[in-house]
Amino acid sequence: MKFAFRLFFVVICWSYAQNVVNGQCNCATDCATNCAAGTHYDSGSCVTCPQGHYCPGGASPKTACPGGKYMDTTGSDQLSDCKTCVAGKYSSAGSTTCLNCPAGKSCGAGTETPSNCNAGEYSLLGASSCTPCPIGSMCTATDQGPTLCTEGFYTSSTGQQSCTKCPAGSECPNRGTPVQCTAGHYSAEGSGVCEACPPGFYSSAAGASVCSSCPEGSSCAGNGTSTPTPCAAGYVAPAESSTCTQCASSRSTPTDCGSGEYAILGNGTCTRCPRGSYCPTKTAAPLACSSTQYSGEGATSCTDCPVGHSCPTPDATPVQCDPGQYSAAGVITCTDCAAGKFCPNPSAAETDCPDGFWSSTKQTSCTQCPNGKYCSKTAETACPSGTYSLGMATACSYCPAGYECTNPAASPNACNPGEYNINGSTSACTICPGGSMCPVTTAAPTPCAAGFLSGTGQRECIQCPAGYACPDNTDPTKNYACHAGSYSIAGQMDCTVCPAGKYCPSTSSSNEIPCPGGTYSTGNSSSCTKCTPGEVCPNADGTGIQTCLPGTYSVAGSAACVDCPAGSACPSTNSSQQIQCLPGTYSLTKATECTPCPAGFACPMTNQATQVPCQDGTYSVGNQTACISCPSGYECPDSSTNSTTACQPGYYSLGGQKTCTMCDEGYRCPNTYEGQTVCPPGFYSAAASTNCTGCEPGYYCPEPEQTRRAECPPGYYSNGGAIYCTPCYAGYTCSMGSTNATPAADICQAGGWCDGKNFFRCPAGTYNPHNGSIDSTACVLCPPGYYCPGPGDTSYTQYPCPKGHYCLEGTTVSTQYPCPGGSYNPDDNSTSETACQPCPSAKYCPKGTTDTGVDCPRGFYCTGGQSSGFQHPCPVGTYGPDLGFDNETQCIPCPAGFYCPGGTESQPTTAPTPCEPGTYNPDANTGHPLNCHKCDIGFACPEINHTASVVPCKAGYYCPLGTIADDQYPCIPGTYSDKTNLSSADQCDACPEGKYCEWGTNNSTNPPKPCWPGFYCPLQSPSPEKFPCPAGTYSDRADLYEASQCYTCPQGYYCEGGASSTSGICPRGFYCPNGTKAGTEYGCPNGTYNDVEGLYEEAQCKNCWQGHYCEFSVSAPVQCKAGTYMPYGFNRTSNNLVGPGQPAKRQFECITCPGGFSCPIGTIHPYDCTVGFYSKPGQEICETCRIGHYCDNSSTSEDAMVNTKKCPPGRYCLAGLTKEPDATDCSVGRYCPEGTVEELKCPVGTIRRTTNAHDVDTHCEPCPAGYYCLEGSFTETGPCETGYYCPTNFTNPYGVHPPTIGAYGARQVPCPEGTYTSVTATPDVGSCQTCPAGYYCPLASSSPTDCPRGSYCVAGSSKPEPCPIGRYGNTSLLTALTECPQCDPGWYCDAPGLLQPRSPCDPGYLCYLGASTSAPTDGVTGELCPRGGFCVSGSYVAEPCPLGTYSNVSGAVNNYECFDCDAGYYCSSVAGGAPTGACWGGYYYSKTRL
Questions:
Q1: Enclosing H/E stretch for 1200
Q2: N or C: which end of the chain has fewer CB within 10 A?
Q3: Can you tell me the distance from the alpha carbon of 571 to that of 585, in angstroms, rounded to the nearest whole number?
């Protein structure tokens, strides 16, 4: 069988765009672009969006839900996911829930910031709006409920903060708008209720505040009399009478008495009123005057004893008082005027002497107090020592601080500057002592601060001057100058020795300048010492001086050893000599010798440890710049040796391989030097195969790989050589690996049918008892009375229909047809519903019931035929505690205190439900919770099943409708009550002023409590600390009720409010006038400071120092930071304010230090850098002049150094260079651009033979042809090795500078294959010689290689060419194909490169010259042995059959295949395929050979 197949190659192409961005990736922004919606980027990954936020995804960060919204779940991805806060709640941005609106504020839907209620409004926790205070109440705070106006007070409109007294003549119903009292009624101010005028009084108009006395002759019966009733004829009535009385006389018309006369009821005449008495009415007896009055005869009223008179008896005439006496009106005796008072005539009372005046007893005037004395109201006294007075004094004044008082009758004399007097008790002023200062005369001496000193009598301390030591702070004459190498700054009392590692050029500056690199000092120095050559000085203090390690070196003044550069060796540590490494060696930094390149590596560079490993399939044996490639048909497993090894059968190599490649699965590899060939369809191969194998029966081979060979799956089969499997026949289930379509072992079983692969079981309700079924028609329905659960049933008899059910034809499950609810079936094998019987009463039968049913459940009754026990619940108002009821009369009535609702299946009424606490039910037979009444107002119902309200409310609490406990609703803070029948909070009384009331306050168990010190408690205060004394005040009393009662905070102190004493003394940096609210309220302004406590005005703040800045409210100047200076401010040496600028008020006002100068911390004036150093603006210290530059003046700035002081081209400047002429010439082999920081080596492939080079393009020249130059060469590094050439002036492969270079390695370019060079310094490819015939020259040959036996080599060969098949080569140095001899006659040569013929040809064949197979048939190199002869092994001519025989077949291998000549014929030919001819006449053939 032949197979024809094609190979198809599918090439898949795609584009790939790569964007490269240089720089550091910021993952916080660059890595977040792929986050999914609902997540955001955080800490290196996408995380779920947290609560309170939404996350759109991508690069967007998480976003907080705005204020007024919230998010209580995670993973939200858009703003609309944020939920809006409902009215009464609010939220800030990023909230996970909404908060209740605070009391005193309102929150509409979506509120972020609650709105404050206006005065006169209020809101409680969680309010959506503010409520105006109702009429009859006041709202003193917006965060508390209304307070009912006290009895007698009112509000006439809503929104009031206080209640008004009800006016006189009106009443205020419900504490609302006043209504005038009607006639006959009255009310006093603040009463609030109109009362009826009592008997004997009346009011004739509305709005009366008092009732009028009933007039004489009329009666006012009371109960709201509005008009007096005149007495009837014959009746009389005195004033304020409630009834009229019948006259005693029989006259019918009485006669009126005159003024000053009287007649008692029934008198017949009028009587004149006597002296000492008065008769205000005509109907009553005289009334005696009081002891303080008098009267004459006929008086209707008594007269008070006049001012300045005495009245011994009410019926005597008044007598005038003596001088110095007094009497008030109505006083009957005169009294002597007391000491300290005076009484001019006439006087009703004593008059106090004014302050500064005095008197003895019985004086008509007071005496003025004289100078030098003080006077009480009653005497004068001389002023004691240390006090004085200037007349009219009530007390002598203490001599004020800062003054002296030698004469008590004269004004105080001020102390002289430099003196003091603290309290005036001392008559003379005191001189200020040394070491202290007396800036004011009123205070004790202040010791000089650290760094300051003074003599005696000084107002200020002076700062110890810079550059001096001040050993005695009481005597400035002892100051002395600091010695060189030490220093002191202003305010420093002793000299500081300059520390090791630094130098101090000035004795008056703290500028400790660090020694620059390569120098040191051991302390007390004004300059640094240079490090000696050959050593390094790493520490500026002179410690740790070390000798350079091998591979490094140093020059004089070095702070660190210089590492020997890569590509060179430095054998000496005290010399800068560098020996360049040879090709094939290299060095890194710090090398003392060059390292040879190891075997297995190539080392192209001398200045890097670039040991390039030989790639797989190449090798090197050491000191090589390139690796050698392995030939085809071979492997080179070791890259460090010449380990060339021929590939094994089943493997191949195409050259350049470390190991031979195993022939892939599905391919064959007949030879080792060519690639693999794919197997044909239906064949397969394992890895490392030389041929392919046909696919076996029961298997299929869709692909040629052995691992793809697979057994046919169930339901399929194959006969062999298949690339796919064929489906099996229906009625069978072929198992895996089947070899035919109808395997007997896999016939379909009973209970279902088969499609060739799968077994399909008969469905439920059917069965099949037969094998070999091919479709579903083989399954038959289950008969009535039985069920077939399936699937796959083979019989039905084992499944009879169960009790409680019946089974029709094709029934699938035993319970498919249950007896209906309300019936039952006790029998098996039923075939219809007629077998089901009705359910009896008192029971119920669910569908499928097998007996007489289930007892009716509790709370229900069952009448028969029921499928459920829950059809008939006990009626509302009844309950059923037992099973098995059959009618509703068996249900029990519900008792009082309970209710019995209608029952349901899930909640049957099996027992009465008690009324909950807070309710009661007086009725029986009720069935709803609403039948439980809420507990009556003023009462509590604490238990279940109450039948009435039983517990009165507790004092201090109120009980609204439905209250459970007597202390459930306490009077709110700020109110109290002693009543036990309250129904709402507004019936609680307001807490009195000066006290506070907590929850449930009452006078018996929890009375109102005193307010706390530091607070005040107005009417209705809920806590002792709600109303703190305002900031700037304090109080130690516990009875305050308004803020104005708090004390003002005294100067020098601060009061934060709400405290019983001052909060503290004014802190440093601040001042505190009267009423200061916080210690930090009044800070010393910028540019000033304050270093003492208790100041009370801004003028006491001090000016900031030079070299310092003073920001707002500082207690001490702050040094200007390093890199800045400040020349303006207070000079602590001269005690003067230095200008023209102002003292620094802020840190940024310190001036940036200019370039070329240094400014350590606290600098007043910048310091020069000195030559060899520089600085940029704002530096603390100067730095050593950079390499490549010079610093030739004392104030070189960085800008000047970088731009104008570069080292010139061709020159090299070391660090710290002080002038340009000291620069050195650029070394040979190197170039130095302007300002270079190092002498740059000329690149590889270039050379510089002289000094002062500065341009790499023109001064570093290409290495001459035939030679190579390593980096930094000033002479050729060496000649090119044999086998290689070194060109020059070719394009620089490493960059554009220089544009062209020469060779840079001893093996720069190998001579091409087929050429060689046997000399060094070969300059170009044309100098490589052509390889001669008989030899071959691989890449980089230094001499021709002999052409081996079995091959030939024409001129220019790079490798031997094997003698082809049909030829061989048994000598070396063959020069052409023709020199390979053709295979000898009788032999064959079946492979290229044979050293001799393979073997003799096969028997039966002839091999002529050049045979390539053992059985040639081409007729040129050989053929099948011809008829008439035979050919043994190795024949190149046929042997003829012996005479008398012949052979008529070709391919004979010996003489046994020659037959005797036929009778009648003769055989004389040696090669004929038939007898030679018929015997001649007269002759015959008798089988005897001739």
A1: helix 1198-1204
A2: N
A3: 16
